[in-house]
Specification:
This protein is of the alpha/beta class. It has two domains: 16-227, 3-Layer(aba) Sandwich (Rossmann fold), CATH 3.40.50.300; 232-292, Alpha-Beta Plaits (2-Layer Sandwich), CATH 3.30.70.100. 34% of the residues lie in helices and 27% in strands. The protein is built from eleven helices and 13 strands. The strands form three sheets. Strands 5-6-7-3-8-9 form a six-stranded mixed beta sheet, sandwiched between helices. The protein has a four-stranded antiparallel beta sheet with strand order 11-12-10-13. Strand 8 and strand 9 (216-221) form a beta hairpin. Helix 8 packs across helix 11. The longest helix has 16 residues, at 172-187. The protein is elongated, with a radius of gyration of 24 Å. The termini are far apart. Bound molecules: adenosine-5'-triphosphate. Adenosine-5'-triphosphate binds at residues 25, 28, 30, 48, 50-56. InterPro entries: AAA+_ATPase, ABC_transporter-like_ATP-bd, ABC_transporter-like_CS, ABC_transporter_ATP-binding, P-loop_NTPase. This is Sulfate ABC transporter ATP-binding protein. It is found in: Cell membrane. Residues 16-239 form the ABC transporter domain. GO terms for molecular function: ATP binding; ATP hydrolysis activity.
């Protein structure tokens, strides 16, 4: 019995496609020739120092701003079409919430506007704001307002959820439950894209990390890949007696040295060679530890290297 086999030639439409996109404000290139593809089910963190172009990128993706050059596609259509079709839910950084309406009224409005809306009470419950449903929106604390914004972003069944610094102002437990909810969304096959300054969140939650700097993509990979890209490793040890700081600063492959009391902390691009040279100085390091960089340090190393190259 012959079985028909068909070779599936799936040219998967990316969830988001940026093709050589630039956005200029006067003399500032907020986004500079950015090309990017996001795929279904990915949880993607967008990192970058202040002014790197994160918000502008999200605004372009949501059709709130238009590219000067290049093309932005969302599910193969224009951002506007994708939003009108209810495929995108968004939570913006400072999106003003309407005054003088209650939380429930506002959520109801968002549900009415969404082509694939969930029930209002479900949306309130998922965002953890059932208790404050009758509160006026302009009477909320910062963290509560963030939860309401989150409710608006998840008022319906969207395939892509875009979040600009979603957990700013949330306390630890609000943050944890927020990310638990976001994970559920991703597990159901949705794509989640979030901009953040909390690198530990990116490390814990994202399966892909984008590092933006001056509107350009400096790194794109898993958190582990980004850490590896930064190249450096951390070395720490204790020394007895007087510490010869000059000798330590002359060690090979250093990117930084920090000496406090008897503890030496070094960042090195070749940890083996550096440690070898420490012994070469005739020193006897105690409690020697060599570790990879955290995402935060990797991020600082990558963006600092780029700054140095440009200046
Ligand atoms: N409406 C605007 N007019 C002029 N310049 C702007 C405007 N919006 C953004 N910019 C500039 O574009 C660059 C990118 O800004 P953007 O807000 O996208 O960065 P960001 O990465 O989101 O920063 P942050 O982490 O501080 O929120 C910055 O230099 C900013 O000053």
């Amino acid at each position: 019995m012959g079985t028909m086999t068909t070779t599936a030639v799936t040219t998967e439409t990316p969830v988001v496609g940026f093709d050589q996109v630039s956005k200029v404000y006067g003399t500032v290139r907020a986004v500079d020739g950015l090309s990017l593809r996001l795929h279904p089910g990915e949880t993607v963190a967008l990192l970058g120092p202040n002014g790197a172009g994160k918000s502008t990128t999200l605004d372009l993706l949501l059709g709130l701003k238009h590219a000067d050059t290049g093309e932005v596609r969302v599910f193969g259509t224009s951002p506007r079409e994708a939003i009108v079709a209810g495929r995108v839910g968004a939570m913006l950084q400072s999106g003003g919430l309407m005054d003088e309406v209650t939380v429930e009224e506002l959520v109801r409005l968002a549900c009415n506007l969404h082509p694939k809306a969930y029930g209002v009470s479900d949306v309130l419950a998922r965002a953890g704001i059932t208790q404050i449903a009758d509160r006026k929106v302009n009477k909320l604390s910062g963290g509560q307002a963030q939860r309401v914004r989150f409710a608006l972003a998840t008022a319906g069944d969207s395939d892509l959820i875009v979040l600009d610094e979603p957990t700013t102002g949330m306390d630890v437990s609000a943050r944890q439950s927020f990310w638990a909810t976001m994970r559920e969304q991703a597990d159901q096959g949705r794509t989640v894209l979030f901009a953040t300054h909390y690198l530990e969140e990116a490390d814990a939650i994202a399966d892909r990390v984008l590092v933006l700097h001056r509107g350009r993509l400096l790194a794109d990979g898993t958190a582990a890949e980004i850490k590896a890209k930064a190249g450096a490793r951390r070395i720490s040890f204790d020394l007895d007696g007087d510490i010869d700081e000059t000798a330590l600063r002359g060690l090979p492959f250093l990117s930084s040295v920090d000496i406090s009391a008897q503890t030496v902390r070094i960042q090195s691009t070749d940890a083996d060679a550096t440690v070898h040279a420490v012994y070469g100085l005739g020193l006897y390091p105690r409690n020697l530890e060599v570790a990879g960089l955290g995402l935060e340090q990797a991020f600082v190393a990558i963006t600092a290297a780029e700054e140095a190259q440009q200046s």
